[in-house]
Amino acid sequence: MKDIIRVAALIVVVSAILMFVNAKLNASGGPSAKGTISVYNWGEYIDPDLLKQFEKETGIKVIYETFDSNEGMMGKIEQGGTSYDITMPSEYAIAMMAEKDLLLPIDLEKIPNIKHIDPYFLDLAFDPNNKYSIPYFWGTLGIAYNPSLLEGQTFESWDNLWNSSLKNEVVLVDSAREVIGMGLNSLGNSLNSTDLDELREATDKLKKMSPNVKAVIGDEVTQLMVNEEAAVALTWSGQAADMMYENENIDYIVPEEGSNLWFDNMVIPRTASNLEGAYAFINFMLDPEVAAQNADYVGYSTPNKTALDLMDPEVTSDERFYPDEEARDHLEVYKNLGLEMLGHYNELFLEFKMDMK
Amino acid sequence: MNNKPLRPLYIIPYGAWILFFVIAPIALIVYYSFFDLSGNFTFENYQNFFTSVYFKLTISSFWYAFLITFFSLLFAYPTAYFLTKTTHKQLWLLLIIIPSWINLLLKTYAFIGLLGLYGPVNAFLEMTGLGKQQLLFTDFSFVFVAVYIFIPFMILPIFNSLDKLSPALIDASYDLGANTWTTFRRVIFPLTLNGVKSGIQVVFIPALSLFMITRLIAGNKVITLGTAIEQQFLVTQNWGMGSTIAVFLILFMFIIMLVTSGSERGKTGNGKVK
């Protein structure tokens, strides 16, 4: 009995100490009058210096957390228990979140810097009139490859990936819509296809590629490409930019049959507790100088027209990362296909992965 | 002994733990497995599980879990045996246990570097004249890393049962004319079978649901039930299907527990009767 009392007392004392330390830590975070905002972003998707600059300029403390998939992020916000003020979903996820009533409408009056955004990126189909979202970055899906490891193989077409000279060389991204989408594109179909026959055809075609597939992985692909352990990768433009920054041999191309054009936008989820802080953050990120610095660091393409003039012209005129409008019209944006279709895509993807032996 | 009337109270923390952290989660998993995406009651998930994709998935999960368990046992038994013969057994044992304190992901990432095309393993292979091999993203590296991760859990129970084995029994066996092999087969191995069985349990069951290293080391060329559950919950958001796979995983685990513990009871019973 004595032991139990002793243990109970110990727990109380330890909890009290932890609470005290917690309070101290929170208090030491500078002037809390302006409060804090919590930002929930993709990994490696912001220049950390900008967060410090924002804290200094506004006196608002930033709590920063990261996610690695739209679905994981949505799940966390939907379950509640979080208090994120800002998050950066992709276009189809924004449509899904709006549908589920997970987002707060944005008052554009409070974001004067929106005037810097290229009108091309405003009022898009997934969020008419930018009711819920403000552009952050955009990019494409394509093929990163290292010509020095390949004997003259080029990638004008998706079909080149099926070439028998690429045995065990191709790294794919571990994501159903990207891989099945590639199969659909290579057959000339839409990557938003919901036609079961088209999807079956795409999966069967992908299965023929399996001898060429080295691995199906996530962000680890950057390191593999940089170290020249892999020669070809299906990847996003910004990730390719990271690879090219570290290894000059690498090149990036969007195949001619078309591919995915995507947008990641800033939204205010329903869980937000500091609306003023959230608006201040969005406005700050749209500041041309901030946007230019951020794009420079992250490597993805900025929708900020004024920022483009502040950046290295060599980057902004690079058609691989800033395709012109005509080239963009050739690309396709993901639509929210609904959970049932997403499940079907994933089942086909699983079937493809099972077949890779 | 004035605390006697309090004794029933001691069961409360244990009972609450079992209720909240064992029974309730399993009940929830079973409950969710009967609902489809739009929240209607359905048996569709179970029908779905018996389609070819998931059936193949189950078979391949079992195959890899079997390989991992088999090689763990193959290396763990002799290791445990020699450990009991060494003078500083506790120290050696500690050295085997220490790596299991390091985070699993960290160890896995270390292997990406080690097994890479320009990693030390390939540098060694090149030096010996074998030339560079593609090690990462192969079945070999997957089983190798998994065995490395699980082997301490196999060594420990076997070591314990070997350590408890009375040397007198072995001496008796020799005195009665048995040679080394017969002694091992008829005396040592049967008496340590319990350790082997619990080793198999703690390796086989988690090996069935491995998921992170299937992606990092095997590049998703090996898919286990664990990967499928992760996908259903995080990507597809089909909690019903994810739960259904989990229900089957739990069932498989039950069967394995029954197989590895049930037969032993029967054996001692028979032995005594005869």
TrEMBL record, chain A:
One of its GO terms (molecular function) is polyamine binding. GO terms for biological process: polyamine transport. Spermidine binds at residues 44, 92. It is found in: Periplasm. GO terms for cellular component: periplasmic space. Keywords: Periplasm, Signal, Transport. This is Spermidine/putrescine-binding periplasmic protein. It comes from Filibacter tadaridae.
UniProtKB/TrEMBL annotation, chain B:
Its main location: membrane. The chain crosses the membrane at residues 12-34, 62-84, 91-115, 135-159, 199-218, 238-259. It comes from the Bacteria. PROSITE patterns: ABC_TM1 (PS50928). It is a multi-pass membrane protein. One of its GO terms (biological process) is transmembrane transport. One of its GO terms (cellular component) is plasma membrane. CDD domains: TM_PBP2. InterPro entries: MetI-like (IPR000515), MetI-like_sf (IPR035906). Keywords: Cell membrane, Membrane, Transmembrane, Transmembrane helix, Transport. This is Spermidine/putrescine transport system permease protein PotB. It comes from Filibacter tadaridae. The lineage of its organism: Bacteria, Bacillati, Bacillota, Bacilli, Bacillales. The gene is potB.
